[in-house]
Specification:
With 145 residues, the chain is mostly beta strands. 12% of the residues lie in helices and 38% in strands. Residues 124-145 are annotated as: Disordered.
């Protein structure tokens, strides 16, 4: 990875075990490690979440490092998935922004790309705890009617 190639902070359907992880990241990553995005809140969307900057919460996710030689392709594929057409484009669903505050498990802080809602996007209700994976039922947990 060159100095201009940032890792990606993913927090929804691109996380391990989620539908888009295998579709978009398989074979294109060198490493995926747990991370958190402080100063943001996670909001529900139509089948995917939005990390909304601001506030005192934090969003759980993973830091994705592109495999050697795969960065350009990965960047293009993620931009396509996230409906990001360029900075400030009026049809963007998300904006891709560099963020200097992604925190790793060991406390290290790194710079990474984060997709945040574009101005035309209206996020849904906050997701308590800031973790997209928490919305899934726990295997073996009792079901309520």
């Amino acid at each position: 990875m060159s100095a201009g190639e940032l890792p990606f902070f993913v927090y929804g359907t691109l996380r391990p075990g989620e539908v888009n992880h295998g579709l978009f990241l398989a074979g294109r990553t060198a490493a995926v490690e747990p991370a958190r995005l402080p100063g943001a809140a996670l909001h529900d969307g139509p089948g995917y979440p939005y990390a909304v900057p601001g506030g005192h919460g934090e969003v759980a996710g993973d830091l994705v490092h592109a495999a050697p030689g795969a960065y350009g392709e990965l960047l293009s594929e993620l931009d396509r998935l996230e409906e990001y057409l360029g900075p400030g484009h009026p049809l963007n669903l998300y904006e891709r922004r560099p963020c200097d505050t992604v925190r790793l498990r060991d406390g290290a802080v790194v710079r990474a790309w984060v997709y945040v809602p574009a101005p035309r996007t209206t996020p849904g209700a906050p997701i308590p705890g800031g973790d997209w994976l928490s919305r899934r039922p726990v295997p073996g947990a009792p079901r309520t009617p």
